[in-house]
Design brief:
Largest sheet: 8 strands, antiparallel, barrel
Low-confidence stretches: 1-39
Mean pLDDT: 81
Distance between the termini: 38 Å
Order of helices and strands: HHEEEEEEHEEEEEHE
Number of domains: 1
Number of helices: 4
Structural class: alpha+beta
Strand order of the largest sheet: 1-4-5-7-8-9-10-12
Radius of gyration: 18 Å
Length: about 210
């Protein structure tokens, strides 16, 4: 059965974007002119090349992989970064669990998405040459069902081409239901599934790809 980890993961995604905006390591000589073009225009999440997953643990020892199938996001020219997670796209691998997550846990009719926000410095992209990676601590604000929480993590950002950047966490991000006031909903899921427990804290990981618009 699922828990709330996906949200934190979303936050981490935005964090990954933010990582691109932190002061980068000094680029190789000759890379400055080539990299300068990266600061121009906006960047858009490539949903086909991105993944957001989390692991839920039930009955104290049964671990199950889950994911969200629909993500969208962007970084505007002024450095405003946003990430949206379609909560109805939660995929636990079991139809009845998907339904319970949508209707009971997330209540998607009134809360269709989780959102992540961060503010970046577009000029920092210029310091990252093609093939170069940087590791940075990041912070983003995640919102779901009217509750908001700040999430911190460390991400590895790689510029794979002139117009493409990938972001991955250096370690799983641990999120708990109490961060978003979802402990009661988790208890309801546990009762419906007749489980002795569902762990309220879970590891989240992601791989995000952004392309220049």
């Amino acid at each position: 059965m699922l828990t709330l980890r996906p949200l934190a993961l979303a936050a981490v995604l935005a964090l990954g974007l933010a990582a691109c905006a932190e002061p980068a390591a000094e680029a190789p000589k000759g890379a400055a002119v080539e990299a300068a073009s990266v600061t121009e225009g906006a960047w858009t999440l490539d949903p086909a090349g991105s993944r957001l997953t989390y692991v839920s643990i039930k009955a104290g020892e049964v671990a199950e992989a889950n994911r969200f199938d629909k993500l969208s996001g962007s970084v505007a020219g002024d450095g405003t970064a946003t990430l949206d997670i379609d909560l109805a796209s939660v995929n636990t691998g079991v139809d009845i669990r998907n339904e319970r997550m949508r209707e009971i846990f997330f209540e998607v009719t009134g809360n269709p998405k989780a959102s992540v926000a961060a503010k970046l410095d577009p000029a920092a992209f210029a310091g990252l040459a093609v093939g170069q990676s940087i590791v940075r601590p990041m912070k983003a604000t995640v919102s779901i069902k009217g509750a908001t929480s700040d999430v911190e993590t460390e991400v590895l950002v790689t510029r794979v081409s002139d117009d493409r950047i990938t972001v991955v966490p250096t370690a799983p991000v641990i999120i708990s239901t109490d961060m978003f006031e979802l402990t009661d909903e988790l208890g309801e899921l546990r009762a419906l599934a007749q489980l002795p427990s569902i762990t309220p804290a879970v590891p989240v990981t992601f791989s995000l790809a952004f392309t220049r618009s």
